[in-house]
């Protein structure tokens, strides 16, 4: 009965973490380029009372043993990098990534971060920046005389002036990782590479397995509200059932304490 108390408590902790993760997913349902998280669980070590294959008194082998599980534990919260829905905005500075890849921005400390959020802005100098003012890499600055901006599927940025003359202002690149699940979350729609993610491979959109860019579109989150709500109900019921196990174990201990 004591084992059941601790086993059920691990289940409650695990389901609480799952609910926390689902809550974060739901709160970011309208976050541009957001990728949902998934919690992975494992069972905890087993207490072995009798090993399978052991010999009994007659010299024959026992076909199955006795092992009592001690609960569950979370082992990872992994991002799911499936494609989100694309929404047309008709904003010439909005770009969405169709396929694999991340846009690269420069952090204040000089390191790089990566994002699926293609809501590009212009600073006072006409440089491509994100909503927090971080400069996209490679740096692209459009002339002050620009009246029209075109971003091709390969990332080529063309600035057209009032005379209709087009100037190549630069080219957006994309980066991909062998293991994107290994990226660390920085918040603000940003990821940073780790030893687990591997080194970024940067190239031209549409080449080398990289996705393409679509001007005038943004990528929504890949959250499926119905799926998340169903998972929330399952987690809630599992949490409730584990609490019932603790109550039942407590009642059994009360009965044992009353035995004379």
What does it look like?
With 260 residues, the protein is of the alpha+beta class. It has 2 domains: 2-80 and 239-257, no CATH class; 86-219, no CATH class. The protein has helices spanning 2-27, 225-257; strands at 37-43, 46-50, 66-69, 72-79, 86-88, 95-98, 103-106, 112-115, 121-122, 128-129, 135-137, 146-151, 156-161, 166-171, 174-176, 184-187, 190-192, 201-203, 212-215, 217-219. The strands form 9 sheets. Strands 8-7-11 form a 3-stranded antiparallel sheet, with no helix packed on it. Strands 12-13-14 form a 3-stranded antiparallel sheet, with no helix packed on it. It has a two-stranded antiparallel ribbon with strand order 1-4. A hairpin with a 5-residue loop joins β9 and β10 (128-129). α1 (2-27) runs antiparallel to α2. The protein is elongated and about 100 Å long.
Layout: helices, strands, pairs:
Elements: H1 2-27, E1 37-43, E2 46-50, E3 66-69, E4 72-79, E5 86-88, E6 95-98, E7 103-106, E8 112-115, E9 121-122, E10 128-129, E11 135-137, E12 146-151, E13 156-161, E14 166-171, E15 174-176, E16 184-187, E17 190-192, E18 201-203, E19 212-215, E20 217-219, H2 225-257
Give the key terms.
260 residues; alpha+beta; 2 domains; three-stranded antiparallel β-sheet; 2 helices
């Amino acid at each position: 009965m004591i084992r059941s108390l601790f086993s059920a408590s691990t289940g409650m902790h695990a389901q609480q973490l799952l609910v926390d993760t689902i809550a974060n997913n739901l709160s970011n349902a309208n976050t541009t380029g957001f990728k949902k998280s998934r919690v992975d669980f494992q069972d905890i070590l087993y207490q072995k009372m009798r090993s399978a294959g052991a010999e009994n008194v007659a010299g024959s082998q026992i076909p199955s043993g006795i092992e009592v599980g001690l609960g569950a534990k979370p082992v990872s919260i992994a991002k799911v990098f499936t494609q989100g829905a694309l929404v047309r905005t008709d904003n010439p500075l909005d770009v969405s990534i169709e396929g694999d890849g991340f846009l690269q921005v420069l952090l204040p400390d000089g390191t790089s971060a990566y994002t699926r959020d293609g809501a590009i802005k212009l600073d006072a100098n006409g440089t491509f920046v994100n909503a927090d003012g971080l400069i996209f890499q490679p740096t692209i600055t459009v002339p002050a005389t620009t009246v029209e901006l075109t971003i091709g599927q390969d990332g080529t940025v063309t600035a057209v002036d009032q005379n209709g003359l087009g100037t190549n202002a630069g080219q957006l690149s994309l980066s991909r990782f062998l293991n994107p699940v290994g990226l660390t979350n920085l918040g603000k729609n940003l990821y940073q590479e780790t030893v687990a993610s591997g080194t970024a491979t940067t190239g031209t959109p549409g080449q080398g397995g990289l996705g393409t860019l679509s001007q005038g579109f943004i990528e929504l989150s890949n959250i499926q509200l119905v799926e998340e709500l169903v998972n929330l109900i399952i987690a809630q019921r599992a949490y409730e059932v584990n609490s019932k196990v603790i109550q039942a174990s407590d009642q059994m201990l009360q009965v044992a304490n009353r035995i004379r």
